Amino acid sequence: MYTLSKDMWKTKTLSKLAVLGVIAFALMLFEFPLVWLAPPFLKLDISDLPALIGSFALGPMAGVIIQFLKNLLFMVIRGTSSAGVGELANFLVGSVFVYTAGAIYFKKKTMNRAVVGLIVGTILMTVVITLANYFFIFPMYAKLFGLSIENLVEMGTSINANIVDLKTMMIYAIVPFNLLKGILESAITILVYKRVSPILHK
């Protein structure tokens, strides 16, 4: 289990975390729905990328801190249209992803471990967010906005006829959405990490 080290609180490290948090926030603004795959309230972005890079370079807890900063900045600057539910989900799923990937890679920094970390992180992220959505996030979202679960399911049914209840919403929308997100961000991380890591190690 990785915790916050003393080095994490050095001014230089805090500055790097802050910069990565701001970049992650900026990337979070460029989000778009995958209307062929999931309901429009699920939007894809690559804002986990700076947190993955930070997790690889500075340790897995750095990735979690970047995720927190990203969502905090989003709520303060842009506000929330989901009563904080969307931001909570984003922080949860992102933290599981970057911490897992970073913990596996940081133990022994090789390309193979980076790939394994990203694969395991993607799978674990998908499992955690699917369970969280089923038992907590979707019910909370529906309650906060005076909707029924059926209302949310109908948004999925309009895209995929196989979505007929909350369970099939998880199987046919949430799972593929998060697998796609993880694969996309993992591929970009592999492509760019070695190019930007020297900056973070200075």
Description:
By secondary structure, the chain is mainly α. It has one domain (9-31, 42-201): Arp2/3 complex 21 kDa subunit ARPC3, CATH 1.10.1760. It contains seven helices and two strands; from the N terminus they run αββαααααα. The protein has a two-stranded antiparallel ribbon. The mean pLDDT is 89.
Give the secondary structure arrangement, pairings included.
Layout (H helix, E strand, L loop, with lengths): L10 H18 L3 E2 L9 E2 L4 H10 L1 H19 L6 H23 L3 H34 L4 H9 L8 H36 L1
Helix pairs in contact: 1-2, 1-3, 2-3, 2-4, 2-7, 3-4, 4-5, 5-7
Organism: Soehngenia longivitae
InterPro entries: ECF_trnsprt_substrate-spec (IPR024529), RibU (IPR025720)
Keywords: Cell membrane, Membrane, Transmembrane, Transmembrane helix, Transport
CATH topology: Arp2/3 complex 21 kDa subunit ARPC3
Q: What characterizes the major β-sheet?
A: 2 strands, antiparallel
* Strand order across the largest sheet: 1-2
Specify Rg, calculated over alpha carbons: 17 Å
- Label the structural class: mainly alpha
Membrane topology: Multi-pass membrane protein
GO molecular function: riboflavin transmembrane transporter activity
Organism: Soehngenia longivitae
GO cellular component, one term: plasma membrane
